[in-house]
């Protein structure tokens, strides 16, 4: 024995000398879902445009375009995202309430979520 400790400390290599561990680069994309609003005669254009501006943060021209599409075709896809957020947005539309401009308006717009075609 030479007087040195019998236990040796572990040798630590500098970070540059360690082999880099490649992270898994595969990312699972969540399937897309559409939020669809339906036309009815119980809500004004102003109501629908306001809803699209507030809930979906669409710019005014886009909100007006979507409102006309809802009116002329009976429905429009107003938002596409992952399922959880699509369901939240649908619930926000359904909870938006009746149009105060029309006495005949008793409830929110009809809205549903549907799977969107994958890219």
Provide a descriptive summary of the structure in words:
This protein is of the alpha+beta class. The protein has a single domain, classed as Ribosomal protein L7/L12, C-terminal domain/Adaptor protein ClpS (Ribosomal Protein L30, Chain: A), CATH 3.30.1390.10. The chain has helices at residues 45-56, 60-73, 83-94, and strands at 32-38, 75-82, 111-115. A three-stranded antiparallel sheet has the order 2-1-3. Helix 1 crosses helix 2. It is elongated.
Compute the number of strand runs: 3
The CATH topology assignment is Ribosomal Protein L30, Chain: A
Rg for CA atoms: 28 Å
- CATH homology superfamily name: Ribosomal protein L7/L12, C-terminal domain/Adaptor protein ClpS
Shape: elongated
The biggest beta sheet reads:
3 strands, antiparallel
What is the H-and-E element order? EHHEHE
Please estimate the helix content. 25-40%
Q: Tell me the domain tally.
A: 1
Q: Quaternary status of these chains?
A: single chain
What is the mean pLDDT? 88
Distance between the termini: 71 Å
Order the strands across the largest sheet as they lie in space: 2-1-3
How many helix segments? 3
Strand content: 15-25%
Specify the structural class.
alpha+beta
Low-confidence stretches: none
CATH top level class name = Alpha Beta
């Amino acid at each position: 024995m030479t007087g040195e400790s019998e236990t040796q400390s572990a040798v630590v290599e500098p970070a540059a000398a360690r082999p880099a561990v490649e992270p898994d680069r595969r990312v699972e994309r969540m399937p897309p879902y559409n939020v669809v609003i339906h036309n009815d005669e119980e809500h004004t254009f102003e109501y629908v445009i306001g809803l699209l501006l507030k809930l979906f943060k669409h710019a005014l021209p886009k909100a007006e375009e979507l409102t006309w599409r809802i009116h002329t075709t009976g429905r429009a896809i107003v938002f596409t995202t992952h399922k959880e957020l699509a369901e939240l947005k649908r619930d926000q539309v359904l909870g938006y309430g009746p149009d105060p401009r029309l006495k005949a308006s008793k409830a929110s717009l009809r809205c549903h979520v549907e799977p969107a075609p994958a890219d």
